[in-house]
Amino acid sequence: MIDSGRDLWRLQYGAQFQKNTGVSFRVWAPHLEALCVSLRDRTVPMTRAGEDFHASVAHLEAGTDYTFLAAGGRQYADPVSRWQPYGVFGPSRVVDPDSFAWSDQEWKGLALEDLFTYELHTGTFTPEGTFEAIIPRLPYLRQLGITAIELMPIAEFPGSRNWGYDGVCLYAPHSQYGGPLGLKKLVDACHREGLSVLLDVVYNHLGPEGNYLNVFAPYFTRAYQTPWGEALNFDGPASDNVRRFFVDNALYWVCEFHIDGLRLDAIHGIFDFSVWHILEELTAAVHEQALLRGRKVHVIAESDLNDVRVIKPRSEGGYGLDAQWLDEFHHSLRTLLVESRRGYLADFGKIGDLRKAMTKGFVHDGCYSAYRRKHFGSSSKGRPGRRFVVFIQNHDQIANASQGDRLSTLVTLEQQKMAAAVLLCSPYIPLFFMGQEYGEVSPFYYFTSFQDPNLAQAVRDGRRKEFLSFADGQNFADPQDPATFERSRLNWHRLEQAPHAAVWRLYRDLIALRKQWPCLSNCRKDLTRVSFSEESKWMVVERADPAPSRAMLVCNFSLAEREVPVEFGERAWFLKIWTGAEIYGGPPSQNVPPQTADRYVSSITLASSQAVVYTSPH
Question: Which residues of 100-173 form beta strands (DSSP E)?
Fold first, then answer.
């Protein structure tokens, strides 16, 4: 167990620049007998102290390149390198973390309930593919109603094209994206715009190419195996410093880069049977530093466990994470729109599944899973809605379940818009994948740029095998082909075209409506009621609030017109959103839902795949 103390955290390992003094180097390397710092014009021996090596070099400036030189002449990048300007195989560079002039001193972060999160991939979000190129797009995101961006992993990875989940230099913002300076400029600009910045981090494995951590220390274990290779050593011999390395990494992003939240990738690939789980330790450390700095910082998991302990408070025996992604919301909604039932989608396809996701959270809460061939999951019924992040698209679901095809190319325009209404009327934190807000049709594929041809082929073969669990293999996109990456870029010109402008307008209005009405934004799934008909394929969602306001979402999932029974009661209700309206790209000759409704209105007639939202102030 690492005691993080009560002081403001500072990184102690790697190269520490000290103004007017020089640079001190420190590395944990119990696997090595001797080590030197290799500079351009000299080699400096390091002194061993326990399992660490130390060296200080006077009058060394920030911007100096260096490597660690092991016996036999092999040179390695610093395991805690802040910058790899020449990629994973090049030297590390000394960075002065205090040299950046931040302008966000008044920024305190946002509450979970206030997050409208926009997930993006830095390399394909803009033509330039850099951190700084994102900045001119921030006013656009604010106009849409977005309050947070979530960056897919940005730690240095091999080559120039990658999702980021193959990162190997976990402290170094990717050089071709703009390195540490570019990332700080982006975060500072986001805070000026009132936007939080969440960062996707990968603590379940490292990429296979350029990964030399095990040369220095026992970072990995053969006791467990992940789908991506050897597991990280969080509970075996010498695991204390492995845990410290990853806790430090989380604190590094929060403290040096002012990141507002961390999304922990695939925590089901993190194995730890310690009394104090690494997830609990890391979250506690992040929360402590956020408190000391007067900021809100959230830790959010991606989990395939349906284990409520992940989001239970520590006081109740949980790990204390702030929230987790709720994949089963996506699966429940997607299978009502697209016929595919392959892979993990085999367990879904009923409106009852979506009702359970909307009102309880986990669909598999101890019930039988045909896909897993066992009973699975725990109940999340008692957990607040703010503990879950929901989506109708994200990077994985597009590239995996849909072979790169976005929802806009798989369903009708009306289905797209109805799905958006369901998302934004849910009692959870909504997340959008870049381009979703205007119905982008460019694919989003998995892409890599490994240099080892054998590794590249192994990745192709593995990806094709995974692809075949969802498709017939006819349209497989080679991850190594540069065209796969290029085809995954957003096409911003579509914003000016029909029907994309209408889809964008609907998203903007739905987000604004959710912000305006507490009954939609309060994340109270305990005050959410859902009625439905599997036979007639309609669903009615009523959202309530301790204050008098109410909202009603009425959906027709059928491919035919439906008269949907609705109990409006004694209240007066007012039509706020109709997805079939002309301003949202609907055809002009349709029956318009009533502008007002009360106890004398017993049903709403909707065309195929349309939705309406009514609100009642009191």
Answer: 117-120, 148-151, 155-156, 169-173
Backbone angles phi, psi at 457, to 5 degrees: -70, -40
How far are the Cα atoms of 98, 341, 417, 461, 586 from residue 503, in angstroms, in the given order?
A: 43, 27, 7, 37, 10
Determine contact, residues 352/532, Cβ cutoff 8 Å: yes
Which residues have a Cβ under 8 Å from the Cβ of 497 and sit 6 or more positions away? none
Residues with Cβ within 8 Å of residue 453, at least 6 apart in sequence = none
Task: Give me the pLDDT at residue 354, please.
Answer: 98
Question: Is 414 marked active-site?
Answer: no
What radius of gyration do the chain's Cα atoms show? Answer: 25
* Nearest CA among 252, 206, 244 for reference residue 228: 206
Least confident interval from 9-23, 393-407, 429-443, 505-519: 393-407
Q: Classify residue 212 as left (phi > 0), alpha (psi -120 to 50) or beta.
A: alpha
* Residue 217 to residue 128: CA distance in whole angstroms: 38
From the number of C-beta atoms within 10 Å of its C-beta (0-12, 13-18, 19+), residue 317 rates as exposed
pLDDT at 512 over 70: yes
Q: What's the count of helices (H) and strands (E) in the chain, helices before strands?
A: 15, 31
Candidate list 265, 307, 353, 440, residue with the active-site label: 265
**b/e burial code for range 244-261 (CB count within 10 A of at least 16 → b):** bbbbbbbbbbbbbbbbbb
Q: How far is CA 35 from CA 51, 245, 430, in A?
A: 12, 19, 49
Distance CA 270, CA 194 (A): 33
CA-CA distance, 49 to 562, in Å (whole number)? 75
Active-site choice (209, 256, 302, 437) = 302
Q: To the nearest 10°, the Cα dihedral for 241, 246, 251, 252?
A: 100
Q: Where are the beta strands (DSSP E) in 358-462?
A: 368-369, 374-375, 388-390, 429-433
Residue 111 tokens read as 């509450």
**Which residue, chain included where needed, has tokens 């590390």?**
92
Query: What is d(CA 182, CA 177) in angstroms, rounded to the nearest whole number?
Result: 7
CB 421 within 8 A of CB 611: yes
Answer yes or no: is pLDDT of 4 > 60. Answer: no
Q: Is 265 a catalytic residue?
A: yes
Three-state secondary structure readout of 167-225: CCEEEEECHHHCHHHHHHHHHHHHHHCCCEEEEEECCCCCCCCCCCHHHHCCCEEEEEE
pLDDT of res. 7? 84
Which string of b and e fits 466-500 if b means at least 16 CB within 10 Å?
ebeebbeeeebbbbbbeebbebbbbeeebbeeebb
Q: Identify the structural domains of the chain with CATH numbers, from first to last.
A: 529-616 (2.60.40.1180)
With tokens 């964008």, the residue in question is 504
Q: Nearest CA to 186 among 285, 115, 120?
A: 120
181-203 pLDDT per residue, tens: 999 999 999 999 999 999 999 99
Q: In this structure, how many other beta carbons lie within 10 angstroms of the beta carbon of residue 182?
A: 22
Q: Do you find a cis peptide bond into 499, omega within 30 degrees of 0?
A: yes
Q: What is the pLDDT of residue 112?
A: 97
In total, the chain counts a number of residues equal to: 618
Contact 563, 435 (CB under 8 A): no
Helix or strand or coil: residue 509? Answer: helix
Which pLDDT score is estimated for 39? 97
